[in-house]
Amino acid sequence: MPDTHPPRDIPATLLAQLRAIVGERGLLTDPTDTAPYAEDWRHLYRGRTPAVVRPADVAELAAVMRACAAAGVPVVPQGGNTSMVGGAVPAEDGSEIVVSLARMHRIRDVDAVDLTLTIEAGATLKAAQNAAAEAGCLLPLSIGSEGTAQVGGILATNAGGNNTVRYGNARDMVLGLEVVLPDGQVWNGLRRLRKDNTGYCLRQLFVGAEGTLGIIAAAVLKLVPRPRETEVALCAVPSPEAALQLFTRFQGHDPAAVQAFEYMSGMGMSFVLKHIPGASLPLAAPAAHYALVELATPRPNAGLRAAMEQVLEGALEAGIVADAVIAESDGQRAALWRLREEHSEAQKREGASVKNDVSVPVSKVPELIRRASEACARLMPGIRVVPFGHMGDGNIHFNLEQPVDMDAAAFLARDHEIMDTVCVVVRDLGGSFSAEHGVGKLKPYMMPEWRGGAELELMQRIKHAIDPGNLMNPGKVLP
Predict the structure, then answer these.
(1) pTM above 0.70, yes or no
(2) Of 232, 304, 379, 388, which has the fewest Cβ atoms less than 10 A away?
(3) Which residues pair with 178 in a beta bridge?
(4) CA 328/CA 338 separation, integer angstroms
(5) Confidence of residue 8 (pLDDT cuts 50, 70, 90)
(6) Is the pLDDT of residue 351 over 70?
(7) DSSP letter string, 5-35
(8) How sure is the predictor about 167, in pLDDT bands with cuts at 50, 70 and 90?
(9) Backbone phi, then psi, for 463, in 5-degree steps?
(10) How far apart are CA 134 and CA 136, in angstroms?
(11) 397 forms bridges with which residues in the sheet?
(12) Which residue range or ranges hold the FAD-binding PCMH-type domain (predicted)?
């Protein structure tokens, strides 16, 4: 979006203070250096910031927050800047400081007995996964951008990911947090306790708050035993209804083994095969719909391969599955998952898209796909419907690609109209307009209608109590 706002001056004394706190390496002020921090991954928003501050530890972060609070200058916390809703982009007028957690990336502790990982917010999710693996454990949180997305941002948005069906969202893996508050106070809640019922559960205030209440500096995350067996299969299915029936069969056979169950449309798969180098479809022919299932267990000699084959054979006989392939190696498992994980990048390369991160009860997913597809086709003939995502937990990324003969800017100009068309169906099915990506800068206008009354008022009261000056990521989440 074009920058039409005049710049606002940040006191030179504040910049001098920040430089004294974090040093030359920790402060970026050249517009060439700050520009990448001022634009989101989807290129929907382009802001401006006079400085990107990169503290090296929690003491520096607290000092930065104290200085900004004293000067009355708002702060935008930023992790890997992979937000789908503009949640980490500064304002266009240059009035906000970006605080990047990238230098705070230490692994503080891994305990294979307690099954905990204590890690700083700037570490990437991939680094966290690797640290757990080196200790013989598994951090079950997994998202497409895990090589770039940072732990702090993932917790701040309560990311879900592929394994939610078994392990829950990010908040379900958090035992403790260290948080720097808007005034620079540090709350050290880095507890490793599984049971701690002493007062309000403060950590859950900050998980999912998108940096509007404070900055997560470090976290204690739950780990699980590393799987001994993993099986992955890609299935061609005739319909979303069939995909749901397949999921139900796997759940009925052994719900503890189902680690992920993903849905993909034929349109989305065609974009991946077209735009992602090296991607190939290991089935006899393209299909209208696909399901990707992963089974995993830490139990020895669990016979997952036999279980996978048994369920798929029954589904083939029943006509629920038209064709299927089971990975024979780690490389093949990765290749099958790549067909799913590259959906967002492939859509980006295909053209402009409007993204809907929505959730409905699992049983309603096929109805969501059918009704929302029909509604969008009525709204805009030629629109290309690309739903995909976490069928196992009811979260579908109901994305819409621009018609082939339509200008991208003209298409994106109707983004709210398109989102609202999808959300009429979502709401009728008892769903949510924000399943795992957050509200960010893109969707606060939806909050009064969806969360109005006592719920929104309570959120606003919490925000005012913790951040009375509205200095933490203003313009995000709340309208």
Answers:
(1) yes
(2) 379
(3) 188, 218
(4) 15
(5) low
(6) yes
(7) SPP-PPPHHHHHHHHHHHTGGGEE-SHHHHG
(8) very high
(9) -60, -45
(10) 5
(11) 357, 388
(12) 45-226
Q: Which fold has domain 229-343?
A: Alpha-Beta Plaits (3.30.70)
| Domain residue ranges in the chain | 12-100, 107-225, 229-343, 351-438, 443-479
Q: Is 77 in contact with 93 (CB distance < 8 Å)?
A: no
CA 269 – CA 348 distance, rounded (Å): 13
For residue 275, how far is the Cα from the chain centroid?
23
Q: Which residues of 291-326 are buried (b: 16+ CB within 10 A; e: fewer)?
A: bbbbbbbeeeebebeebbeebbeebeeeebbbebbb
**Which sign, positive or negative, has the C-alpha torsion 124, 145, 177, 186?**
positive
Closest CA to 399 of 364, 372, 425, 435: 372
Beta strand segments in 185-329, E: 186-189, 215-222, 224-225, 229-237, 258-265, 289-297, 323-326
Contacts of residue 463, defined as CB under 8 A and 6 or more positions apart, other chains included, come to 212, 213, 470, 478
The second-level CATH assignment, the architecture, of 351-438 is 2-Layer Sandwich (3.30)
The number of beta carbons lying within 10 Å of the beta carbon of residue 216 is 28
H helices of 174-322, where? 203-206, 240-253, 266-275, 304-318
Q: Would you tell me the crossing angle of helices 365-379 and 240-253 to the nearest 10 degrees?
A: 160
Q: Which two tokens stand for residue 115?
A: 């099954």
Place of tokens 């699980």: 224
CA distance 238 to 244: 11
